[in-house]
Design goal:
The complex is a heterodimer of chains A (about 110) and B (about 120).
Chain A lengths: L4 E3 L2 E5 L4 E6 L7 E6 L6 E6 L5 E4 L2 E5 L5 E6 L8 E9 L4 E4 L3 E6 L1
Parallel strand pairs in A: 2-11
Antiparallel strand pairs in A: 1-3, 3-8, 4-5, 4-9, 6-7, 7-8, 9-10, 9-11
Chain B lengths: L3 E4 L2 E4 L5 E7 L6 E7 L5 E8 L5 E2 L8 E7 L2 E6 L8 E8 L6 E3 L3 E5 L1
Parallel strand pairs in B: 2-11
Antiparallel strand pairs in B: 1-3, 3-8, 4-5, 4-9, 5-6, 7-8, 9-10, 9-11
Chain lengths: ~110, ~120
């Protein structure tokens, strides 16, 4: 059972474009995390959102946690080739004993 | 942030042999470590959760006897792929946390190729 649904699964855009990645679930989370992974490496944490409706910004990346704490989005403004990678949302399950990931969004930004 | 070191980064082994992958938390004590498996262009699939000094909790569909996990200390967990077959070839990643539901720190991953 896929607990976290991510969309789109693949995204290929040109430098300078904007994009949004979505992470949805039928469950309510106390917090949700976004990671970025490059090929052959482990994921790196970008942000943790905790409060319903919360918006966090990390340079050109804007993260939002849904009011009901069931979903989240990642918006990238003016994408650059360096943004290329696999973006993963993740949430703690089983009262914090397991960290599960969504299917991921593979982003390719071409010059 | 905290550092998690995974070794080896790449390993090639013959079918039928066993391979051990180590995951170490270098500058903190990890109460819990997690092992994931990742196929190309796919997400991380949780294999098991291990707590120091106790048996690992395996996710449904993961063979306990094939993927042996040992969490002998607060800074070291190992994953042994026993009697490896080509279908076990994959990218294996570990992560560690200081506390339950706290930030997870990931190792660099191990690319296993079984020939």
């Amino acid at each position: 059972t896929q607990l976290l649904e991510q969309s789109p699964q693949f995204l290929s855009i040109q430098e300078g474009e904007n994009l949004t990645v979505y992470c949805n679930s039928s469950s309510v989370f106390s917090s949700l995390q976004w990671y970025r992974q490059e090929p052959g490496e482990g994921p790196v944490l970008l942000v943790t959102v905790v409060t319903g409706g919360e918006v966090k910004k990390l340079k050109r990346l804007t993260f939002q946690f849904g009011d009901a704490r069931k979903d989240s989005s990642l918006h990238i403004t003016a994408a650059q080739p360096g943004d290329t990678g696999l973006y993963l949302c993740a949430a703690w399950w089983n009262s914090g004993y397991a960290l599960n990931f969504g299917k991921g969004t593979s982003l390719l930004v071409t010059p | 942030g905290a550092v998690v070191s995974q070794h080896p980064s790449r390993v090639i082994c013959k079918s039928g042999t066993s391979v051990k992958i180590e995951c170490r938390s270098l500058d903190f004590q990890a109460t819990t470590m997690f092992w994931y498996r990742q196929f190309p262009k796919q997400s991380l699939m949780l294999m098991a959760t291990s707590n120091e000094g106790s048996k690992a909790t395996y996710e449904q569909g993961v063979e306990k006897d094939k993927f042996l996990i040992n969490h002998a200390s607060l800074t070291l967990s190992t994953l042994t792929v026993t009697s490896a077959h080509p279908e076990d070839s994959s990218f294996y990643i570990c992560s560690a946390t200081k506390d339950r539901a706290a930030e997870a720190f990931f190792g660099q991953g191990t690319r296993l190729t079984v020939v």
